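Q: Structure for this?
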Amino acid sequence: MRPEQQGVDVAVLVSVGRHPITGRARRADQDARGLELALGLERQLPGSRVRLLHAGPRGEESESALRGYLGMAAGAGTGLDTLTLLEQAEGSDAIPALAQHLAAAPPQLVITGTRAERGEGSGLLPYALAERLGWPLVNGLAAVEKVENGVATVLQALPRGQRRRLEVRLPAIVSVDGAAPAARQSAFGPARRAELEATPVAAEPDQELAQWQMAPARKRPKRLKIVKAASARDRFKAAAAKAEGGSGQVLEGVSAEQGAEAILKLLEAEGVLR
Amino acid sequence: MLETLLPILIFAALALAVVGAWRRIRLWRQGRPAEVDLLRGLAAMPRRYLVDLHHVVGRDKVMSNTHVATAGGFVAAAVLMILVHGLGLANPVLGGLLLAASATMFVGSLFVAKRRRNPPARLSRGPWMRLPKSLMAFSLSVFLITLPTVGVLPQDAGSWVLALILSAVLVWGLGEMVFGMTWGGPMKHAFAGALHLAFHRRPERFGGGRSTGLMALNLDDSGAKLGVETPSDFTWNQLLGFDACVQCGRCEAVCPAFAAGQPLNPKKLIQDMVVGLAGGSDAAYAGSPYPGKPVGEHHGSPHGPIVAREGKALVDAETLWSCTTCRACVEECPMMIEHVDAIVDMRRFLTLEHGNTPNKGAEVLDNLIATDNPGGFDPGSRLHWAADLNLPLMADVKQADVLLWLGDGAFDMRNQRTLRALVKVLRAAEVEFAVLGVEERDSGDVARRLGDEATFQSLARRNIATLAKYRFQRIVTCDPHSFHVLGNEYGELGGVYEVRHHSTYIAELFEAGRLHFAPWKGGSVTYHDPCYLGRYNGEYEAPRNVLKALGIQVAEMERSGFRSRCCGGGGGAPITDIPGERRIPDMRMNDVKQTGAELVAVGCPQCTAMLEGVVDATAEVRDIAELVADALVARPAAAAVDAAANKTTAEEVT
Amino acid sequence: MSEIRRRDPRREWIARNRLHPEHAAVLAELEGGAISEWLGPNGVIRKNPRAIGFIGPNGVKRIDRSGAQQGGQATGAARQEAQDSRRNVIIEDPAFLVTVVPELSGGRLSGHDKDLLGLARQLADADADRPGAVLAVVFGEHKEEGFGEAGIDRLLHINGDAYVGFAPEARLAALCAVERELAPRHWLLPDSPLGGADLGRRLALRLNERPATGVWQIEADGAAPLGWRCTARGAAESLDIQRPLPRVALALAECAEPVDETRHAAEPLSLSEAIPSALSRIEDLGQVAVDPAGVALAEAEFIVSGGNGVKDWDGFHRAAKVLGATEGASRVAVDDGFMARDRQVGATGTWVTARVYLAVGISGAIQHLQGIQSCDKVVTINLDPGCDMIKRADLAVIGDSAEILAALVAKVEQQRGGQRDAA
């Protein structure tokens, strides 16, 4: 029997993010939340160890983004001052390299973001790793409640802030999205002093990806309200209908009852009342 | 008997003082090295003391005179005493002078005593309460023992008992005045203060100069610790400066955060630094505490952290984040201590090393890094508000007389009104101007005051590179924060510009006869001095001149000009948002209310936002540019009549 | 109004017979107003132009000459007819299968599911001579009745305790059984966080396929292996990737129009082999109760926000609780200590994206209005009819906020009580 609550060995997979407005490299939001989760775990379970792992090319921009993660460990007493960089050429498939690295020294818990902010961003990576390593995977993680006897009790985020409690056997891969706790500030000093331990790995170029056509996202057409009109009158009405919006309705001099009724009607029409 | 006892007493006290001085100097030397011209500083010290320091002290005439009498009397008496009693130069002339000096000092000390009878809350008590008695003991005993020297009394007057009592009183006086000066008594301020004036970190402040820009942090050494973590991380002359504090509490009286009940008191902060410098607890502190924080729970050491990551150390982080960097404390400090520099130094550590900028701080800094503006707006939309104004872009025209710096107010709907008004004014005056448009970035003001020197320098360097591409005579901006940073803080990074605040520039345009205003028809108006325009840059007159030109008689608030009360919007304070009992802008609008003004003119987007955010305000908030734009007329009536007359004559001719 | 139309042949006859003495009365009744046309005493048709038309919703008179107005009562029947216009389609012997795994949120096909089924129909019906069938795989209990209308030809309903809640492993095993037995040509899943996004990726990797994720458009392309090309969103919605459509595709909402012209058989289907039970390493312990007040403002869908005008804060909190809304506040309410700082909405607080934003006693400072820019519907309760919030609001009620909130709470509680009784 192992002691009940003991530290866990956590690997956080991090990627180079992309700011949604300016497109600048940054720490990816979901990955940073993943690291925040790991750092929280470390606080909760003394003796835990957190490592950072990234597979990709090394460049000035990506390096400063990766250092953003290291800046989060400022003084957390974690010894998180290095990031293992599996150095690969641009456009290589990161999955085999990561799987190989994780298999060589398996952690108990692997935390990743749900989707990358650059490249294909298909969100397949955690699944591919789970499939290769044969580990269970839980997506949309919001919190790790406890780790006992090789079983982690976790909360999974459901829409509208709801949560579901799951038990998952370790080792496992978990992915986090926007519902996980927000990442702490990244401090400049520790980020600058931390080290990137680069290990060149065999790169398998992602040939399929190279054949696809990539273009900046077009604005998706707004779906039109198609009215199936039986008569010319209905078609005319649909076409001439005033667009929604404009100035709103103002109810003045009505009783509280009437006002409440009008509000209730709108709330029901919007479907926000459960 | 006194003849033998006095020299021993005097020289023993002096020797002990020297030992104490050496010990004190060693404490200061724990700090980081600083480049100071020691000899020139020492040479300039008397003038700095007599002119610059007394210029500040002289704002309170009674206290100024009290200090002149007491301090002047003491210095003279001490020197003469060494000559007369120490070295035995029992010259009646010297003795007479000594009598006069000690008498003057005694009179001064009476005033000090009167002041201490019912001291205002801002004054520290504790050891300071005994100071008038010590002063009197010294002056009185020196006076009495000198009487025989002058021959007023016979040499052997009085019994040996009297002589012994007299020497006991003298020992008390000497102990406080000479020994205590270097061993940490209230008189420490004289010793540390004199050296502080000599080795001040901003020598430009003396002789009427102004030095308000924060000093750049060296980011080249990647291994170095950034900012100030422990008291010993301050430079030695900063530590010396803290030690010079007289605890007069003038800073406390003007601090907006203290008045709002936020946990900051500049005096206590400086005293905490002194506690940290020597090591120990703040239990001995005898002034007003940080609001809401009892004295005695914090302690520190020269090499221990000032702010603990968890729990308590010397100072709590929220104390440092309460500061609005309004510089009222620095302006008011008779010892010319640099509170704001110290606070920003400590903030730098919290942000750059701890990664602990409170509340929205982290988000704002991330936005600045990713989008070059604190709001996280698309940098490409910086000029959207002016889509219909057709502003000339620097990228197109390459050179212009005036570069109009918009600032981050360009993203704020309220400030866009001010900007539109300013553009209207510039066009009316036919100024040849251009804007950077999307090439402009945040000036870095907020990042720097939040302690993120790295982001500030990154923004500043990129802005400087952009500005270097174009030719212009001067930069005009309606944001005093940008004005200050561009004008006073970019220089150290290689960007030297002539920068004007829009009120200054409008005043110049009016002087030059390029603007004409309709007479003012509104109600009474008061003017709020923005800190970064007034105290930081000394511009108090131009905005008032503009208002005068508009025909407005300014109803001044009690706190205006260099004593203007901050709106609460500076130094990232609205971002870090430390709770207090009141809100700073509410207090300021109350000041406005007391003047009975219906309108308060401002010259800063931050002030506008803060003051407009006050609920149930009695006065409307308008930027000077808006007032000017509203009053614009094409040509004064008289000129128009002349022109019309000319026209008719011209018609007659044809 | 009843959908069943009752005819009265006598009245219809009178309406047609202009000479009938009751003609005018019957016509007025049928048209719901004064008659606009009659035969005058001299045999000339007289018209009353004022009686023509009807008053439109904005108080403006509208004249409709399409004849629909004459029909008066026919609208119910016309609606019936429109629904009946769906063609019944039965695909007996499909050339191939397009399998869809709907997310079935709340036990019903969601809008996303219906769009996906529309996409599935595009794939299935591309070649009219050799149509494919759309197979839907549905897990657990459901309340949906309109599978056929949504375009499903075959329905495989897999029920069992193992598939309830979060059971990706069991569901994956079932889908693999489907793959083995039916070998569908296409697999389509909704790319929604807890619907198909998870299951679809698991399935694709198990089938050793590289799925297309975030698909929002497909086009026929002869050169592609499956004859289709798709456009998918990548890199956090910032990239469009064009690639041949793979066997497994995860599509976004509005990827296609839902089916609305045909009705399909939704013929139940079952697997011949039993689904092998998978060893589960993930156990679902059920949903955790979450206080809506604790939901982060930026995430919240429905916010009730209080400002300076709120005097009865207990009533405000109660209203938020009953409505199940997340609480927000204006800067002033936060400054005055009525609400916590993390509840502040606005440019200096949190920028919110709620679907409905109910502002109570908030006058609408510019910073506040900036913070609610991206809210769909803004409702305000305010005393001052001239404030800026009312200009922004879609619905503004002028009055005492405490009273109106209390009335609203009473109504909602009454309604809930009623529902409970009915159920």
